[in-house]
Amino acid sequence: MKRLSLVILLIGLSVAAACTRPDTASRTDSAASGSPTAGDWIIVRYEAEPDSLNPITATTGVSNYAMLGANNSQIYELLLGYNPSDWSLTKPLLAEALPEVSEDHLTYVFTIRDGVKWHDGKPLTAEDVLFTFKAAMSPLVDSAPIRAYLTALTGVDVIPGRKVRFRVSKPDGLQVNKLANTLGIIPKHIFDADGLLDGVSFEDLIGPKGKTDAKVRAFSEAFNKHSNSRAPIGTGPYKFEKWDTGKEIVLVRNDDYWGQKAYLEKILIRPISDYPAALTALKAGEIDLNPRLLPVQYAQQTSGGAFDDQYVKTVYSIPIYSYIGWNAERPFFKDKRVRQALTMLVDRQTLIDKVRFGLGKIAAGPLNPQSPDFNPNINALPYDPKRAAEMLDEAGWKDSNGDGIRDKDGVDFRFEFAFGTGSSTGAPLAAVLKEEFRKVGIDMTERVLENNVFFDNLREHRFDAATAAWSSDLISDPYQVWHSSSASNKGSNYISFKNGEADRLMEQARLEFDPEKRKQLYWRFQEIVHDEQPYTFLWYNQEAAVYHKRFQGIQWIPVRPGYDLNQWFVPTASQLHGATR
Asked: Residue 297, Cβ neighbours under 10 Å: how many?
């Protein structure tokens, strides 16, 4: 359950579990000619720079992509990974196997793999796993999105035989996923060299003492700004080499990796937020993989003899939905009739057709259509400006002074619409919204922010309305984004959505082991969200990618980010880069 990840794609952690649609699991674009061979580099474009390379405090999708790749194993690793045969979370990574589970589903014991070394040569121990969970659950560490998934965790301890025992307060049908797929395991000897958490039990840490203990406070302050958040030391198939801010992050193959070694010698990550500049860099040979093209680039700007000789284009899907979030702390958006009206002023199908060139489907809610918990009976609100204007009147937002702007209780309906510099559809979407809203007496101005500033503003609720996207896994626990408790302490409920029935449904779903009963709870939850319209759900994304033809062993898979570079390789005769730059 890598947590739901916030992204600013063509428009964050979630619970990972079995893909129930294996027919859509993966697709191969190019067959390997002969056996995979080691060597060469790949230069990958990211739409934004990671905010951190610390798996506990990072919040953006690109951070997770750099740290964990597609299968929980790149710089850092998790306890379990995905089984490509059915995309269930059953592949042992740092855990030797699935956990031993007590009959009452309140105790889980993982055996930690022997012989694994950190990139600095130190051995991985069960103590590292315990430390990772203690760090994440420290109440003063900037890890609120993670804690949202581990609310039932009451105890973690090390027992003989390289075993880590987890105790929870109540059963949860997705508990294995939450324990094994939430946290990249981090080294205790790096992040707590002074042993500040050694004398603090897990129970004290998550209790009242956790906020007052001097050692916990000192640890948290140091951890939140630790230098290794920019220079990670993990256990995975790639080691961190350098981070040149604004230019590139370089990862090198770990030749001492405990498992199947990667083939590519280096991964160079280049953040290029400007989409035209990214395509220019690709055509100039400065990047090899652009995993997200603008739809217009895919449709009109990536073809021709010279281009086709060097590059391959493809379309793939991972669970991502784009949205507009309406901050309920603002007076304009407190009434659900207003939020419904705003959704009915957005012509989503036309935007998909003209801005996304057909790459997408109108979204109806927060769960992906491929999820078994998706409610197919919910129909997205229609584009209906006439009815929207009537609903605004009904909600009391009328032009009382004849200045052309609706008002209520002395407040004009004027607000800012924010998006990050990495958003490819933020500007065209803003232009459409501004005109549609103007027609009904609403004044909207756009506000473009540098990506990390934009994310910070969301976490601090410093915005009126904003557009971004959430990426998740195929089975998702909506608690992180939608539970009212996540509206505080830099949680992911940026819009302050608070609904008692929705909270109860999410809480009950966590206790339900019967998939059919859990589905019914989530169906009702989706009905509430649809009625409340705290988001205008724009579309479920299809993504367009392009990569250099020399790469083989390629599959496009249904887990974030959609590709697993551990499997890519270049035949010896086609390799372009040697051991040194």
From this structure: 21
